[in-house]
């Protein structure tokens, strides 16, 4: 008995022409570069680098903000360096006074009154500088009243030491209490969606707060980032256009206890008024969303940011509900926070949708007359003549109108 045996068949791929093989890597590279170029990354960091800054002295005029903005490694290094340099400088000053007065030449001489007792080397002067600035006061080294220059130096070090403490401790406190990490628990949906809501085409995204301590006076903003060219030919890169997310109605002010869906109605004032589903796929745009509010625990202002490029805007989808009613409380399922599902949505633009809706609301007399005109049943001159002679037979015209009305009902 014969058996059917599947034999491996090698299918050769068609060989591309040489010019196509040479251009393929370049095309792939261009497509990869063109794929996503964000203005604001998904984690909220701005993808902008400042180059060729000539007036760098401006950073030093606001040295406090400059230190706070530094990374933790540099901040700790400067913190230690400032204290160490201060102690060394004043330690050298105490050693220099002892050297000039000759205290180092009379070590152990009970008849000699030094400026600082038991200061016999640079190391001991450095330790005395630390004790003075930090107000430790071990009691082994102490300044005497026979040294006016030492008393003056003691006053200077005490004042400058207090200033250094206030400045550096203030920088560290502001650095630690910055609410940037609070923004890590403010989440945005991975995608934005476009679908119908209350008979209107809307663009929506979802925000949520993972903490039990809430954001006070939370408000949301959205901006469209898209390059444009003016009528005069001026090119404006990354032009920013405000998107209304409820400023007129107060919906932009949020009570962010549970996840909320932020809605932007696409009307004649919206930048998406003439954008259809096919047009959106070809657009190079980015929507930047900004959530601001005060941290309930500290009262400091917190800002969380995210963005959506055109490939992350899903046409014809809605968000999956995440809020359920349990026994005595509401539960939020954050596993479904980013989930969406498809829904019936017109693929045309909001403008075309509004025009179609306006045509469907036209008066019957207009629609019947236009229908007769389209079918060639109505001659304008004949209609005017019949209006001038009302005694004419109305049977034919009434029959035509009845037929058209029956067709429109069907």
Plain-language structure description:
This protein is of the alpha+beta class and 410 residues long. The chain has helices spanning 18-35, 57-61, 63-69, 72-101, 122-134, 148-177, 277-282, 350-360, 364-374, 380-388, 395-409; strands at 186-188, 192-197, 200-209, 215-229, 235-243, 253-254, 260-265, 286-295, 301-309, 313-315, 317-319, 323-325, 330-332, 340-342. Strands 1, 2, 3, 7 and 10 form a 5-stranded mixed β-sheet that branches. Strands 4, 5, 6, 8 and 9 form a 5-stranded antiparallel β-sheet that branches. A two-stranded antiparallel sheet has the order 11-14.
Record the SSE blueprint.
Blueprint: H1 18-35, H2 57-61, H3 63-69, H4 72-101, H5 122-134, H6 148-177, E1 186-188, E2 192-197, E3 200-209, E4 215-229, E5 235-243, E6 253-254, E7 260-265, H7 277-282, E8 286-295, E9 301-309, E10 313-315, E11 317-319, E12 323-325, E13 330-332, E14 340-342, H8 350-360, H9 364-374, H10 380-388, H11 395-409
Parallel strand pairs: 2-10
Antiparallel strand pairs: 1-3, 2-3, 3-7, 4-5, 4-6, 4-8, 8-9, 11-14, 12-13
């Amino acid at each position: 008995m014969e058996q059917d045996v599947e034999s491996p068949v090698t299918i050769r791929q068609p060989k591309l022409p040489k010019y196509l093989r040479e251009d393929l890597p370049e095309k792939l590279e261009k497509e990869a570069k063109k794929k996503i170029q964000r203005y604001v990354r998904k984690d909220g960091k701005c993808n902008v680098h400042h180059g060729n800054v000539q007036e760098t002295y401006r950073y030093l005029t606001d040295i406090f903000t400059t230190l706070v903005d530094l990374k933790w490694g540099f901040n700790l290094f400067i913190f230690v360096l400032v204290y160490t340099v201060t102690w060394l400088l004043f330690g050298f000053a105490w050693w220099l006074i002892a050297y000039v007065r000759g205290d180092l030449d009379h070590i152990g001489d009970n008849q000699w009154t030094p400026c600082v007792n038991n200061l016999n080397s640079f190391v001991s002067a450095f330790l005395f500088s630390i004790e003075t600035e930090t107000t430790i006061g071990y009691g082994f080294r102490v300044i005497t009243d026979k040294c006016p220059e030492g008393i003056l130096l003691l006053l200077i070090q005490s004042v400058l030491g207090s200033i250094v403490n206030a400045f550096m401790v203030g920088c560290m406190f502001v650095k630690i209490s910055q609410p940037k990490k609070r923004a890590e628990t403010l989440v945005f949906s991975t995608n934005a969606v476009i679908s119908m809501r209350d008979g209107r085409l809307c663009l929506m995204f979802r925000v949520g707060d993972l903490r039990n301590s809430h954001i006070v006076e939370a408000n949301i903003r959205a901006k469209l980032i898209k390059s444009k060219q003016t009528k005069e030919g001026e090119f404006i890169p990354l032009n920013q256009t405000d998107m209304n997310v409820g400023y007129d109605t107060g919906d932009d002010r949020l009570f962010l206890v549970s996840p909320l869906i932020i809605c932007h109605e696409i009307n004649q004032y919206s930048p998406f008024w003439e954008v259809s589903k096919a047009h959106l796929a070809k657009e190079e745009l980015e929507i930047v969303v900004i959530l601001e509010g005060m941290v309930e625990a500290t009262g400091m202002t917190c800002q969380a940011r995210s963005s959506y490029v055109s490939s992350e805007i899903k046409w014809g989808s809605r968000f999956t509900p995440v809020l359920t009613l349990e026994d005595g409380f509401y539960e939020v399922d954050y596993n479904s926070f980013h989930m969406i599902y498809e829904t019936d949505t017109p693929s045309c633009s909001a403008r075309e949708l509004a025009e179609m809706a306006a045509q469907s609301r036209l008066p019957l007399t207009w629609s019947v007359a236009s229908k007769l005109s389209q079918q060639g049943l109505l001659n304008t001159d004949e209609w005017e003549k019949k209006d001038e002679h009302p005694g004419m037979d109305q049977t034919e015209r009434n029959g035509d109108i009845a037929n058209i009305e029956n067709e429109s009902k069907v």
